[in-house]
Design brief:
The complex is a heterodimer of chains A (about 150) and B (about 400). Chain A is an alpha+beta fold. Chain A has six helices and three strands. Classes of the chains: A alpha+beta (about 150), B alpha/beta (about 400). Chains A and B meet through helix 2 and helix 3 of A and helix 12 and helix 14 of B.
């Protein structure tokens, strides 16, 4: 039985394979000793938690690691974000953050430069889940603020 | 007997389809849907006799005041209070509890005094006491839970001691469905001279509650969880205790006379109702009370009990589903499905037109006790049927299939 026939189209728009892959096998998950910046965030509404640690050298993110617990959307978003952050300059990370937020507001073009993260564009159609996708990015935003 | 299918027709919200399916609403513990008589009562107030209460010298104001006070009398009868002056209208159960935390606890507790609670309180019956305890140097103590989530009645006396001045307990837990042995707790509190506040947010809409039989000092509950509007709640208080208390909020209506250098308080219950009250909401709550009384609270409890047992049976038979809480319970079932976060579960069910609650249920200590970050909850009320439970079970199977396919769970 194919999913396309048994489930409303919208559900498949939300739960893309790449999201489920990152949920099942999160990348860049774990502790990072001696980080340049560390931010713990927790969504009091749903209980989702994220801890983001970045190692920054010469304005470039060398390492990004996250730990946390939560739904498939929050955890896959953190996994894809951390994976893509490595090797980016802080300015590039800032641009990514801006694009991701625009994508969550429904701007599909904003996601085009975000690689695998574009898989999360369907979340914009589920307003109550947008906060799940944004949790890791809020941690990034606070990290960047602390680095300024 | 409750004919839930007929009752459903009293609730206009069920006239719509949700994602192409008839709506299955399993989130009444968060807020209940509104029957037509409640919506009508609110509409009639605004269309026919909107006016402020307790001050107008005109016909509209008289009718508004009379209807507002009639709602108070209805609520008093509904919970078997000795008189309408013991019924204080508040914004919701949370405000009712905070009223006691500010007006009674902060003025009566001394450093070292103790407040006893269950470990399964909603945040609204925990955080106000944390704040009050911190303000006066009092201490919180907690009753013990049995492994299934029941309160251990045999250990109540170990928690209520000489220093206990107040016991604040829910009558029915919004997460585990636990029915707290309030009678034993009140008896133990009486032996120690402690006051008892009962959080009735999850009991008053679902079962007969008699404050004089319970012999509690306070009972707090919310209108919106019993078919009434949002923005209206109730604090019942024992007359002598209410009379001894300072006002909560200051303003108009709660005074009898005001000079520039002081004021005297109005009589009960107006001493605790500063400013223009939620008039339409109170009148709507009165209509909800009439609606529930006509159905019969014993019948509602029996109906929900049947649904909860049926849900326990059906969910318990699904592989990978863990149900929390005791067997004998309020009309709700909290559970988790292996490998599926409750948010993801709720999203899949929503696509099937089934509304459940997912998260920590404003009871994070309960989630910690269960050792889970979050859980899913299906809660029942007068309009729910066994078919709703069947739809839920079918939805869970769909979710398991979907996530089994995509994550190989």
């Amino acid at each position: 039985m194919s999913l396309e026939h048994s489930h409303p189209v919208k559900l498949n728009e939300l739960y893309r394979d790449v999201i489920m892959d990152h949920y099942r096998r999160p990348r860049n998950k774990g502790d990072l000793p001696d980080p340049t910046v560390a931010v713990d965030l927790h969504n009091p509404v749903c209980g989702d938690e994220i801890s983001l640690k970045l190692l920054v050298e010469g304005g470039t993110i060398r390492k990004a690691r996250f730990e946390g617990r939560g739904c498939s959307i929050s955890q896959s978003s953190a996994s894809m974000m951390a994976q893509q952050l490595e090797g980016k300059s802080l300015a590039e990370a800032e641009t990514m953050l801006g694009r991701f937020k625009e994508m969550m507001r429904g701007d599909e073009q904003a996601g085009e430069a975000l690689g695998d993260l574009v898989a999360l564009s369907g979340v914009a159609k589920f307003p109550v889940r947008v906060k799940c996708a944004l949790l890791a990015w809020e941690a990034l935003e606070r990290s960047l603020e602390q680095l300024r | 007997m409750i004919d839930a299918r007929a009752i459903r027709r009293d609730f206009p919200i069920f006239e719509q389809a949700m994602n192409g399916r008839p709506l299955v609403y399993l989130d009444s513990a968060a807020t209940a849907q509104k029957p037509r008589p409640v919506i009508e009562a609110v509409r009639r107030f605004y269309e026919e006799y909107n006016a402020n209460v307790h001050r107008a010298i005109h016909a509209l104001g008289e009718r508004a005041t009379e209807s507002y006070e009639e709602a108070r009398r209805k609520v008093a009868r509904f919970i078997h209070a000795p008189g309408p002056e013991t019924i204080v209208f508040t914004k919701n159960a949370t405000e009712a509890i905070n009223l006691v935390a500010y007006s009674w606890a902060r003025n009566n507790l001394r450093p070292g005094d103790e407040i006893a609670l269950t470990p399964i309180e909603h945040h609204s019956n925990l955080v106000p006491w944390q704040l009050a305890a911190r303000a006066v140097g009092a201490r919180l103590r907690f009753f013990e839970l049995a492994p299934d989530g029941e309160i251990r009645a045999d250990r109540i006396d170990e928690v209520i001691g000489e220093k206990t001045r107040l016991v604040a307990v829910t009558q029915a837990s919004n997460t585990l469905g636990t029915l707290v042995p309030v009678e034993s707790i009140v008896a133990a509190a009486r032996r120690r001279g402690a006051l008892v506040l009962v959080d009735g947010a999850q009991s008053v809409p679902h079962m007969p509650v008699d404050v004089q039989a319970l012999d509690c000092d306070f009972l707090a509950f919310s209108g919106h969880k019993m078919g009434g509007p949002t923005g209206i709640g109730v604090l019942y208080g024992r007359r002598e205790v209410l009379e001894s208390m300072e006002p909560f909020l200051g303003g108009g209506d709660m005074i009898s006379s005001v000079r520039l250098d002081g004021a005297e308080w109005n009589e009960l219950p107006y001493k605790f109702e500063a400013g223009t009250p939620p008039i339409a909401e109170a009148i709507g709550l009165g209509a909800a009370v009439d609606y529930l009384s006509a159905l019969g609270m014993d019948n509602i409890r029996a109906h929900e009990q049947r649904l909860a047992q049926y849900a326990l049976e059906r969910l318990g038979a699904l592989p990978g589903v863990t149900v929390y809480g005791p067997r004998e319970r309020a009309g709700l079932v909290t559970f988790n499905v292996d490998g599926i976060h409750p948010h993801d579960l709720a999203t899949v069910l929503d696509q099937e037109g089934i509304a459940i609650r997912a998260g920590h249920h404003c009871a994070q200590p309960v989630m910690d006790w269960l050792g889970v970050p979050a859980a899913a909850r299906a809660s029942f009320w007068v309009y729910n049927t066994e078919e709703d439970v069947d739809r839920l079970v079918a939805g869970l199977k769909t979710a398991k299939e979907f996530f089994g396919h995509v994550v190989g769970a």
